[in-house]
Amino acid sequence: MATASHAVEIPLPATEVWDFVSNMEKWATLVPGYREHEIINDRQSTWTFAGNVGVLKKTVKVQIDIIDWIEPTKITFNLIGLTDKFTGNGYFEAVALEAEKTEMVGFLEVNAGGLVAPVLNPVFKAVLPKATTMLTERVANKIRLVQV
Questions:
Q1: Beta strands in the chain (DSSP E)
Q2: Predicted confidence (pLDDT) per residue in 124-143, tens digit
Q3: Which residues, at least 6 apart from 74, have a Cβ–Cβ distance to it below 8 Å?
Q4: By the 8 A CB rule, do 65 and 87 touch?
Q5: Is the pLDDT of residue 38 over 70?
Q6: How many angstroms separate the CA atoms of 106 and 14, rounded?
Q7: Pick from 29, 82, 88, 117: CA 20 to 30 A from residue 44's CA?
Q8: Torsion from C-alpha of 58, 68, 90, 107, nearest 10 degrees
């Protein structure tokens, strides 16, 4: 199982951070390896990602299920691999530090299953920290730009 989290301070109130992260349409294209997504309903979507694993190029399709919206602080979701056997979960959390300052935390956990687990879990452990940091920073930067 691979886990990663990254925190970043944003000089805005938690409500403005929430307004952005609670709407996937605003940040979907910021996910590393993003190719496309389809919103099925307000709690479920499918996403397609592409990336390199060593010398291999891989396209992965994932179902994302929102399991909890705790306005204005946290959105939690589950991941299910549709093209590969893996599951996971994650969240964005906004923690108010001051009236005009918020810490945003991005968290991901992914676990491969089945016969591919011995191959995929080390790959997830290697790439998840960088991907989580990259996504959290991209979202924070986009929030800053949108609010300027």
A1: 2-10, 34-41, 44-53, 56-70, 74-81, 86-98, 101-112
A2: 898 899 999 999 999 999 99
A3: 68, 91, 92, 93, 94
A4: no
A5: yes
A6: 14
A7: 117
A8: 140
